[in-house]
Every structure is written in C-alpha cells, then in structure tokens.
Automatic annotation (TrEMBL):
A GO cellular component entry from the record: cytoplasm
Protein name, entry field: Cystathionine beta-synthase
Keyword set includes Isomerase: no
Keywords assigned by UniProt, alphabetized: CBS domain, Lyase, Pyridoxal phosphate
Pathway annotation from the record: Amino-acid biosynthesis; L-cysteine biosynthesis; L-cysteine from L-homocysteine and L-serine: step 1/2
C-alpha cells in the first residue's frame, strides 16, 4: 500500500510545469515550480515544518507548547498543519483588514485568531506586532517563529526547494526567479543553486514597484505577500543578481492569464514573478532554462484579482478583457 503517515510528510517535492501560451514570444524554456500543490496550499509549508523542527531540537518549543505568530495567511496555515500533528496550540495575531475567510481557514485547522486594529502604528500596544510580542511573553511555553528573522526560513529552501530544482532540471537550470517577501525563498534557493552550479545560475528577484528591494521606500502596492518597507534578516542581499520591479497592473494581468491560458489558478505574487521571468526571458536564448516559483493558489484571491469589479475599481481592466456576460454573446 502506498500512503503517507501524515499529510505533513507530503510537504515539498512539488512539480515543475512548462509555461506554454505565455512564452510564445520568448526563446527559453520557462518552468513554473507549482507550490500550491503543497498540502497546506503554499510554499510556506516548507518553512513552517523546518522552523518548528529546529525549535524542538533547540528546546525553544517543548511538548504542549504554544506557537504565537503575527500572520494571516500562508505561514499560519503551514504552522497550524504541522502543529496539529505534533499537538501544539496555535495563536495567530492579525490586523482587522484581513478578510474573515482567511481567518476562518486558520480556525478550521484549530488555531486561535486574535484580531487587532489595522489603523494603529506598529509600536502601539494594540498593534498586531505588539500584541503578538505580549502574548509570547504571557503564555507559558509560547514560542514565536518570527519568519522575518528565523534563519530556518531560508535554510528550509536551501535544503529542499534548491536541491529539488537542481535535480528536476538535471542541472540545466540557468536562471531562478522568485518574488521577495521575507526573502527566504530567494535567499535559500538562490544560494543553493549558485553553490551547486559554481555561480553559473543567475538569481533574479521580482518585487512590487514601490518596495525596498527594488529601490522604493515601502508601500503602497496591492500584490500580497511580497515586497517590504524594511529589510528583513531573512533576506541575503548577496544572492540576487538582479531585482525586477513589476507594477500591480502587470502582476494581476499575468495572474489572470496564468489561469485562463495555462490552467494555473494562482495568487497575485505568482503573476508578478512570471511577469519578471518573461521580461528576463526576452534577454535570454533558446538554451536557457528559467525556473520561476509560484508561491500559492488563486482561491484566496477570488474577490480581488479574479473579480472584475475589484480590478476595474483600480483601473487594471481594459474593457475588452472583462468577462463576457451571457447577454454579450447572445
Ligand atoms: N508570495 C506569497 C503569496 C507569500 O505569502 C510570500 C511570503 N511572504 C511570498 C510570495 C514571498 O516569499 P518569501 O517570504 O520567501 O520571500
């Protein structure tokens, strides 16, 4: 019989899928690493597993302990899934702008969710940063993974994502493209690919226009999960050879095309990474193999990227690209 002992044993080993329609005008082979096929639905399953195991090994997290993290999304799902197996309690702290749907996903895994006001500065005692710090101090046996500073975030990619890509491409990968949020993905995967290829693999970051990684000062931009207004410890600025800034409009247009033209229903940061990969591909030749990482799936964004009214309200939809209604085609 062929089965996993637990769903968390299925984290990683995600497939590479060739992009076809979107790459018609470029010469390289462009392969997407499809991270929504992780059991928690995103690339963050990888870091959750490794951060928890490292904290157990160091004694920071003990049996019966509580995981406290300011997160509303993918990292929370990964942590909650691993915590379920190991019997830890999870308390996630998020700002009130986070949709109820997202909070309910975390609750469905058995996590507790504490909601804090969005409209206060980070140093305010009610901000979600302050509340998560206070809960970590007050709850006995609490441990805060802190994905923005935890070295096991990039390490997880150094030990899993990087070696997987090298093996799957039989060492033929020439470029690796990823969006940058905490920087864990690009720093860990990029460092591995550079080491194993003796510097041959080029590493390219994709960043929302306005974020620090591409020379901005912070927000505002609408793509979620990527870009920062500070430099996290988990970002190794020695790894990326280049950072390509991508506008919200391009990120969302490519995200919608990935669903309609490639059958890949993915999140907005995936469209951003693919937009950067396509720009890079224009400068590359037929022997190049570009691997672009797609962090999560698109179901969490049906009310935004995939919603015509939302897209139009920001001016991201040209009239001809809107959904045809039944009355249009009759
Ligand atoms: N896309 C999404 C949807 C994410 O949640 C994240 C993580 N913040 C990223 C991209 C970026 O990954 P990383 O934190 O490893 O830089």
């Amino acid at each position: 019989m062929d089965y996993a002992e637990h769903v968390t044993d299925l984290v990683g080993n995600t497939p590479l899928v060739k992009l076809n329609a979107l790459t018609q005008d470029v010469e390289p082979l462009v392969l997407a690493k499809v991270e929504y096929l992780n059991p928690g639905g995103s690339v963050k399953d990888r870091i959750a597993q490794r951060m928890i195991e490292a904290a157990e090994a160091s004694g920071e997290l003990r049996p019966g302990g509580t995981i406290v993290e300011p997160t509303s999304g993918n990292t929370g799902v990964g942590l909650a899934m691993v915590a379920q197996r190991k019997g830890y309690r999870c308390v996630f702290v998020c700002p009130d702008k986070v949709s109820e749907d997202k909070r309910n996903v975390l609750k469905a895994y058995g996590a507790e969710v504490v909601v804090c006001p969005t409209a206060v500065p980070p140093e305010h005692p009610e901000s979600y940063y302050s509340v998560s710090d206070r809960l970590t101090r007050e709850i006995e046996g609490a441990w805060k993974p802190n994905q923005y500073a935890n070295p096991h975030n990039p390490e997880s990619h150094y030990h899993s994502t990087g070696p997987e890509i090298w093996k799957q491409t039989e060492g033929k990968v020439t470029h690796f493209v990823a969006g940058v949020g905490t920087g864990g993905t690009i720093s860990g995967t990029g460092r591995y690919l550079k080491e194993v290829s003796e510097g041959r693999v080029k590493v390219v970051g994709a960043d929302p226009e306005g974020s620090v990684y591409s020379g901005g000062t912070g927000r505002p931009y609408l793509v979620e999960g990527v870009g920062e207004d500070f430099w996290p410890d988990t970002y190794d600025c020695g790894v990326a050879d280049e950072i390509i800034p991508v506008s919200d409009a391009d990120s969302f247009t490519v995200t919608r095309r990935l669903a309609r033209e490639e059958g890949l229903l993915v999140g907005g940061s995936c469209g951003m990474a693919v937009a950067a990969a396509l720009e890079l591909a224009k400068r590359c030749g037929p022997d190049d193999v570009i691997v672009v990482l797609l962090p999560d799936g698109g179901r969490g964004y049906l009310g935004k990227v995939f919603n015509d009214t939302w897209m139009s309200s920001y001016g991201f939809l040209s009239p001809e690209s809107q959904d045809a209604t039944v009355s249009d085609v009759l």
